[in-house]
Amino acid sequence: MAxxxxxxxxxxxxxxxxxxxxxxxxxxxxxxxxxxxEPFVPPTPGTALAAPDAGAGxxxxxxxxxxxxxxxxxxAVQRRGLGAIRAVPLILGLLQIWCLLSAIWxxxxxxxxxRATLEVVLTLSVLLGADTIGPERAFRYWxxxxxxxxxxxxISIPLIHTAVHLPGELDPGLVGxxxxxxxxxxxxxxxxxMTALLFLFTRNGRYNWIGWLVAAGALxxxxxxxxxxxxxxxxxxxxxxxxxxxxxxDGLSRSVFVAAAALLILVAGTVxxxxxxxxxxxxxxxxxxxxxxxxxxxxxxxxRDHPWLGAGFGTLYSTGSLSPMHNYVRSVWVEAIGDSHxxxxxxxxxxxxxGFVLGMISLVxxxxxxxxxLNYQQIGFRALLFALxxxxxxxxxxESDFLTRDSGVWFSLLLxxxxxxxxxxxxxxAP
Length: 431
What we know:
The chain is mainly α. It is built from 15 helices and no strands.
């Protein structure tokens, strides 16, 4: 799998001194997202488990994000001038503005605006940082950090008792699942799946033996997390990347692949229509999908009452009785969960129909269109990007990653978008 992968080396941009601080800041951003501020500290029982920034009020937390953004913005402007803003796609930029505007009609204006601001800061930091230091260097730093995190996770299991889900948590079904330095097994599982994809599609040592070794370690830890979503999506994403590499060599192969994918979607849609009653019954059962069905019911009811503007960015967790879902949930535990476990539904609930359309265009349609052109010289790198993109799109059907500031999966999509927009001459292949 490594024969056509992209090289870990890169041609350094001119005026390297202008990217040194950006590189340091970008690596610091990676640490914040994939390690966090309190590694090995599990969520407090009874709190919103899925709240990615339950500590968003912490002053140091916010200062670090803003300092990293300031350095990246300064180096980006120094290198490209006002043209640095071109690193941000137009529709994605409008989506960020809509997140900020949603604080106007949110039930808790201050919380919504602060969370939206920090999310915008992360988005701009990733896009501007990757554009300034170059996608290859950004992916190289990402691989290095994920390899370190993987080693730390394995070492932590016998040494740190909180590296495993312990009795007394809100969901007793999690007891015994591995989570490493993460607060929850699903975050650890998604990170392991992305680590395996990164190292399988890139060259690390002769015949990629290092990549195979790291990927094996990542998959082993993924199995022990028992994160069903990531375990199911990893082979699908891997096959999607391999199919892209095999089919994007010429127009005919590409057309056959697209026709087969369209046929598969058509068959799935037909099956869904034929078994609509059965599917509806399953969704109405609050015990299905590990309780997600009950969460989805409450969110769908909210959307029916607020279809256009939504509840406001970041208002679904850590807001107590101020949460817009307070009057829609039937069980106390649903309100404590704090997210929809469906990124598409959560986008619709928080940002309404307008934000949902902006999100689907900027986060799904535009990146997907970016994969259409044939580019045999970069096929290895683009196959990796496609595998990560497929993982992200499918992961959001059962987890919430869209616009989630401390989500590694959201970070990965931003990197994919940045790589697709970067000048092609910056991406080189291994000989």
